[in-house]
Structure to design on (124 residues):
């Protein structure tokens, strides 16, 4: 059934809005803050990706630690090589370099400032 979905929104809790905003702005996201709203949050935008930062009273526990494996987000793109190069030039930690997975995705994984693992790739 086609419901007309267009994209997915990621929600990332963070204990330190400013630290997380600075990281994502450094890699090309635009931040819009709604800190005076009933539920304070910050929206991060780049291309068709939107991430909503929410305030957490505890430190972030990435999926791979909390559940034993898994990414915290997956960004789909056709330009994995260029994006990986850009992130490396910005000294972003690449935890898995660009390769083809056993499930046939061409992807790499970087770590954000809160320890989240973000995969960037697509199906072959």
């Amino acid at each position: 059934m086609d419901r007309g979905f267009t994209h997915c929104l990621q929600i990332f809790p963070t204990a330190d809005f400013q630290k997380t905003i600075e990281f994502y702005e450094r890699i090309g996201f635009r931040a819009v803050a709604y800190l005076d709203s009933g539920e304070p949050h910050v929206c991060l935008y780049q291309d068709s990706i939107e991430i909503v930062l929410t305030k957490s009273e505890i430190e972030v526990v990435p999926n791979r630690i909390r559940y034993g494996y898994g990414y915290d987000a997956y960004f789909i793109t056709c330009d994995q090589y260029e994006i990986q190069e850009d992130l490396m030039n910005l000294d972003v930690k690449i935890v898995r370099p660009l390769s083809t997975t056993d499930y046939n995705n061409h992807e790499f994984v970087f770590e954000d400032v809160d320890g989240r693992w973000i995969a960037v790739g697509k199906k072959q």
Notes: Helices lie at 17-26, 63-66, 80-89. The chain has a mean pLDDT of 94. The CA atoms of residues 43 and 120 lie 20 Å apart.
